[in-house]
Design brief:
CATH class of the largest domain: Alpha Beta
Radius of gyration: 19 Å
Number of domains: 2
Strand content: 15-25%
Pfam family, one: Zeta_toxin
Distance between the termini: 58 Å
GO molecular function: ATP binding; kinase activity
Order of helices and strands: EHEHHEHEHHEEEHH
CATH architecture of the largest domain: 3-Layer(aba) Sandwich
Keywords: ATP-binding, Nucleotide-binding
Oligomer: single chain
InterPro entries: P-loop_NTPase (IPR027417), Zeta_toxin_domain (IPR010488)
Shape: globular
Low-confidence stretches: 1-5, 221-226
CATH topology of the largest domain: Rossmann fold
Largest sheet: 7 strands, mixed
Length: 226
C-alpha cells in the first residue's frame, strides 16, 4: 500500500449486525481511499475460529481466534500510524476501550470519519443475522447482536464529538442518509419529522443537535421576513 502526503484519514464503518456494513463499506469509501483494504474483524475472527476448531475445543478456538484478531489489528494500526497511511475498518464500538484505536489515530493527526448504519429496532438486526446464516453467512449469537445494537448507539451518542465527521444512515429498508455532523454541529440533515424513531430514542444528543438546527433555521427565516 502506498503512502500519502496529505493528512491521513481513518475511515470507520459502524452499525448494528445485519445493517450491511460489509456489503456497503467499499462503496462508501472516499475516492482517494478506493484502493485501501478494509479491515473486518468479524470475518477474520470467524475464519480463524473455523481453522482452529480442527485442533482445539470450541471454547478454546474462540479464545485463540479473538486473541489472534486483536493482535493482528493492533499491528495494523501501529504500522499505519507509523507510516501515516490511510486506514479503514469496520466493526462495533460498544465499550469505552473499543474507542481507544480511534483516539490513537486522532491523537496522531488523522482525520477521523465514521459512517454509521442504523436499524429501526433490535429485532430487525436479529432477523437479518438469522437470514444471513441461512444463506451461509457468519453467525452472531443473539446476546451479542443485542449488545452490539444498543452498545453501539450508547457509545456513539456519547462519543460522536470525538469524530471529525459522522455520516448517519438508516438501513432498515432502502438506505437513507439522515445527517452529516461535525463536532457540535449539524452540517446537513433531514428534518426532525423525517428522522427515524431510533435516532430520537437512542441518540438523544444527536437528535437535540438536529432539532436545534431546525429551530435556528426557522428563527432565521422568520427574522428575514420581518
Amino acid at each position: 500500500m502506498s503512502t500519502f502526503s496529505e493528512r491521513p484519514t481513518l475511515f470507520i464503518v459502524a452499525g448494528a449486525n445485519g445493517a450491511g456494513k460489509s456489503t456497503r463499506s467499499r462503496s462508501m469509501l472516499p475516492a482517494y481511499m478506493e484502493d485501501i483494504p478494509i479491515f473486518d474483524g468479524d470475518i477474520l475472527f470467524n475464519e480463524k475460529k473455523k481453522e482452529l476448531q480442527q485442533h482445539f475445543s470450541a471454547k478454546e478456538s474462540m479464545q485463540r481466534a479473538a486473541s489472534f484478531v486483536s493482535a493482528h489489528f493492533d499491528g495494523l494500526v501501529s504500522k499505519a500510524i507509523q507510516k501515516r497511511r490511510h486506514f479503514a475498518f469496520e466493526g462495533h464500538f460498544t465499550q469505552k476501550e473499543h474507542w481507544q484505536p480511534i483516539l490513537a489515530f486522532k491523537n496522531s493527526g488523522y482525520y477521523v470519519h465514521m459512517v454509521y448504519l442504523g436499524l429501526d429496532k433490535v429485532e430487525t438486526s436479529l432477523d437479518r443475522v438469522a437470514r444471513r446464516v441461512r444463506t451461509g453467512g457468519h453467525y452472531v449469537d443473539d446476546f451479542n447482536v443485542k449488545a452490539n445494537y444498543y452498545g453501539n448507539l450508547d457509545m456513539l451518542n456519547l462519543n460522536a464529538p470525538l469524530l471529525h465527521r459522522l455520516d448517519l444512515y438508516d438501513a432498515s429498508r432502502s438506505l437513507r442518509h439522515l445527517a452529516v455532523l461535525q463536532p457540535g454541529r449539524v452540517m446537513d440533515a433531514l428534518q426532525p419529522a423525517e428522522q427515524p424513531k431510533w435516532v430520537q430514542t437512542e441518540l438523544p444528543k444527536i437528535a437535540t443537535l438536529i432539532n436545534n438546527r431546525q429551530f435556528e433555521e426557522v428563527r432565521q427565516t422568520r427574522g428575514m421576513a420581518l
